[in-house]
Amino acid sequence: MLNEEAATKAPRTSLHGHWSSRMAFILAVTGSAVGLGNIWKFPYIAGENGGGAFVLVYLLCVFLIGLPVMMSEILIGRRGRRNPVATMALLGEEEGHSRRWRWVGALGILTGILILSYYSVIAGWTLAYVQKSVFGVFAGATAAQVDAVFKNFTGSWFAVGIAHTLFIGFTTLVVARGVERGLEQAVKFMVPSLLLLMLTLLGYSITSGSFAAGLSFLFSPDFSALTWDGVLAAMGQAFFTLSLGMGAVMAYGAYLPKETSIAGASIAVVIADTVIAILAALVIFPLVFANNLDPAEGVGLVFVTLPLAFGQMPGGAVFATLFFVLLAFAAWTSALGLMESAVAYLVERFYRTRAQAALMIGGLIWAIGLGTVLSFNVLMNFRFLKGTIYNNVDYLTSNILLPASGLLITVFAAWVMCRNSTSDELGGGRSSYRHWHFLARFVAPAAIIVIFLQAVGAFG
Ligand code: PHE
User: Fold this and answer.
1) Are 372 and 205 in contact (CB under 8 A)?
2) pLDDT tens digit sequence for 271-313
3) I need a surface site. Which of 46, 189, 205, 372 has the fewest CB within 10 A?
4) Ligand 1 within 6 A of 113 CB?
């Protein structure tokens, strides 16, 4: 049976108010999107997968899969105007299907918790690097020294554990108090500052790095260096970096005023996110080649290359401090959104207070995160399936859970929802609607399924 509200089709409003402007929404989603995914993760997995061909596939995934999935998430969020679980249940019923679509929202929350468990550990590294920068640890250091600093730090379960505890503790505290009003202001200042600092670093890597070698590594595709698992990683990274498949963008869409163009806002966010990721890679790889470092170094790539550059430039300690503070900030704005949906769910579903819910979720994430903390030291040789505990959590979330939930969300928007509903949200007559409809109906689902099956070797 349809509920009353759905039956009357009254314009639905969110219980928590709406964004003050289109710009506010774009900034909020950009704040969630821009994070460790752009600056830490993208360069390191591009490096591990041979560069050029990976970057090309990544860009295709961002625009042909990420963009339509993002539009689907926002349109679902705006139509339902509730938390992701309730929205999926409501729309599932309203579109004449089933309330069981709520499980897609639940899958997103679970994935968010798992992602935050390691995200917090890496964000903790950036906090520790703020401290190291302030103390001038990198001044004049050689590549070997910077590498040793990284290995010594991550090799200590205690140091990494403390940093993880600090980061998740701080995030929990803020989510518990529900202080998000300041967030818009923070993002307004953070994203442009980060961009400016990246441009400064780019100047440095153009003049002091092997820029030509970096460019050719990133932009001349060598497909023999790319495996199907690499293609899957590129797709997973597209979901991860755009904050898709976790209900995060859906939750933000719930506060979007009716007249804002979903296509326009999505394109702005996708471009901003992509520019920052490419910029990060353009800064990092010339330094890698100039210093004979290994592009496939892995998780430590950013933490080894950038301090090296900072150590050699005038005023480096100041720049380094500023950079790691901004990176920690970027991680923090992403983490807040990541945690919020789980907390909102506990509050609404089980009548917990915000503080109780935040503590429970924060504690759970902290505990799961210990697996990642230990992956770099005590349990570094404990390997199964894809490698360390961290490798497995990362693979499971980015390469399996995010694409799966992205697939379900897009299928829901493009196949289950009727055309009247989607064209009502996206502006039916526009060419952007037709593009979305085609990409979301055919291209994105087919690509997700084919890439996934290829990567698990289903085609032999
Ligand atoms: N997109 C963020 C990043 O690139 C991570 C994130 C994922 C944030 C999912 C929120 C939800 O760092």
Assistant:
1) no
2) 999 999 999 999 999 999 998 999 999 999 999 999 998 998 8
3) 189
4) no
56, 232 Cβ separation under 8 angstroms = no
The domains of the chain are located at: 7-455
Q: Nearest Cα to 335, choosing from 189, 194, 195, 180? A: 180
Residue 398 in contact with ligand 1 by CB distance below 6 A: no
Nearest CA owner, ligand 1 atom 9: 243
Rounded to a whole number of angstroms, the distance between the first and last alpha carbons of the chain is: 46
Pick the CATH number of 7-455 from 3.60.15.10, 3.40.50.10420, 3.40.50.1970, 1.20.1740.10: 1.20.1740.10
Say what the alpha-carbon torsion angle 57, 59, 60, 61 is, to the nearest 10 degrees: 90
Taking the CA of residue 273 as reference, the ligand 1 atom at the shortest distance is 4
Dist. CA 333 → ligand 1 center (Å): 9
**pLDDT (tens digit, 9 = 90+) per residue, 179-231?**
556 666 777 788 888 889 899 999 999 998 999 999 999 999 999 999 999 99
Separation between Cα atoms, residue 369 and residue 118, nearest integer Å = 5
| Cα–Cα distance measured from residue 96 to residue 416, given in angstroms and rounded to the nearest whole number | 8
458 exposure class (CB count in 10 Å sphere: 0-12, 13-18, 19+) = exposed
Look up the pTM and report it.
Answer: 0.95
Q: How far is CA 440 from CA 296, 328, 341, 428, 448, in A?
A: 34, 34, 24, 14, 11
Read off φ and ψ for residue 387, nearest 5 degrees: 130, -135
